[in-house]
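Thread title: Can someone regenerate the structure for this chain?

I was given the following input by a collaborator and told the matching structure tokens would be attached. They weren't. Posting the sequence so someone can regenerate them.
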Amino acid sequence: MDEQTKPTPLPEHREGALQDLLRREAELERHLIDLDVQPLLLVYGHLTGDTATLDRFAPYIKGAWGFEEEVPEEMKAELRRKLVEAFRDYAKSGRPLPPAPSTELLQKMADTAVGTHVPEAYYPMIYDELNFDGKDAKTVKWRKPPPAARLANFKVLVIGAGFSGIAMGAKLKEAGYNFVIVEKNDKVGGTWYENTYPGVAVDTPNHFYSYSFRMDPNWDHYFARGHEILNYINTCYTEMGISDHVRFEQEVVSCTWNGKDAVWDVKIRDKHGNVSEERYNAVISAAGLLNVPAYPNIPGMDDFKGPMFHSARWDHSVDIKGKTVALIGTGASGQQIAPAIAPEVEKLVVFQRSPHWARPNPLIFKQVSDSWKWALANIPYYNKWYRFLLLWATADGLLPQMRTDPNWPETKSLNAENQRIREWLEANIREQCNGDEELIAKVTPKFPPYGKRMLRDGGFLKSLTRDNVELVSGPIQKFTEHGIVDENGEEHQADVIVLATGFKAQCPLYPIEVTGTNGTIRDHWGEDDPRAHLGITVPDFPNLFLIYGPNTNLGHGGSALFHSECQIRYIMQALREMVENNIDVLSVKHEPFEAYNAKLDAEFEGMVWKHPGVTSWYKNKSGRVVTNSPWALSVYHALTAEFDPGEFEQEKADVEAA
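Best answer:
Regenerated them for you:
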């Protein structure tokens, strides 16, 4: 990595960090009081290996979140004292801080801090994700220096400059590739640049929803607002030093495989409508699944005379203050928009096709305290262990409750734990709706929890109890000049209509025309049945790679960026295979592709997303789950950790010409 692209080192890798910390011991002790016990305990265990203290704390910890512990205050005070003593001991002796903990110590630490057993299968993922030595464990290095001419002549196109695209660019730059990133917008950010609607925020804790190789201690919220995330993306983009490789306001129109020359012939249209034709040895789509807005097919949409726009294309020139606004959709965007605009509009009419489950979280709007920011920036390993806790709290722990117990008698839940979650969510609905039985009935889903995307309760339910908010449940009959007619024939007048109706998630790569060795991508996928090996490669489309492709969306928790980093490592290994071994054509074989997708489909059987009472953007018209990954994060990490050349058809380049 170039010097200019190195992130600021965390405290465990800064020379003299401990001595500086102890020179401010009073400040240290003041901040420690404000911090959760679990990450402090992990830091202490890492530095000392004191398993006896871990054993003492274990009975009081029920989960990874800070609000899931009952440790007595005197024990917390004792831990803070012992942690400061450990810092003093390291500083006095001058010995370096310990490397990654052994697997034995990791097991004890992890099990204690999350209140349950962390399977050994997670250890490789934890080591990779936390980068204890200060280097990105997912970086793919050359096994042998490639010929300069071969590397210079091997051109790579990346489509999209969102989170995944610029991370891909950073890794290509590190390895010295000749690459271009084409972005249709005028700035980086992808979906976080495009979605500027009121209330936009992430529903994954952002200390985990960020690059593992660029952890930021300065987040203002635990669940960041949209502008915070965009600032982070812009900061990373600047530090990565890839601006010379990015072309803005240009859009890929088509990619056509040229078998004679073993390249992709790509047509790119600029903002003026001019189309250029370019050639690339490899194409990587980082456009993802949630980049093309989906518009409802409802009669009369063109009849409405007022402003109407999609939530992902929010028209800020339209003043909604004091207006009657109709909001169509109560998914993730709709549930953020409603409470954000309800206080300023005259009336808000929310149209709900079907209700969603939403989990409460006491941190959803809470700001990160100065003590937390200070600790993340100054206490060795604190940033890393806090990230591990979020990884566990928001991810795979949910998978067991998303599988059907064949002996479970209920139809609105899947198993005992799923039923417990349902009852908890129902209690929250009742509380937020102030006991209004009619409203409670409207907003309580009939399907099991997690059947659709589990949302965060950010005030949506409470906003429905306002005097100026009306919830209309059921399908829409049609639009009129002045509003919307519901299924009962009642017209609801509106000054402005907002379409929070989601994206064309079942149609990745749309609207790009992609033609491989045997037809177009639509010939292979149809309208809504995308498939890919590991979500990354497709037979008959050589040298084409997807990030956030089919069946890589996380519906059970986790961070989309974790998945992206796994896919980027796999793609970098594939490119390395091509460059080092003079391979012109790399195309996944049909056998591993079919085997993987058969295994994938079998894994979905018995999962909540296949529940007969659930319709969602996760499934296509035939009922196949096409967007989500059924795998635990540790499983997908293992599946993508090593590129297998044996799964690919290969055609070698002329070595002399290379």
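The chain has 21 helices and 22 strands.
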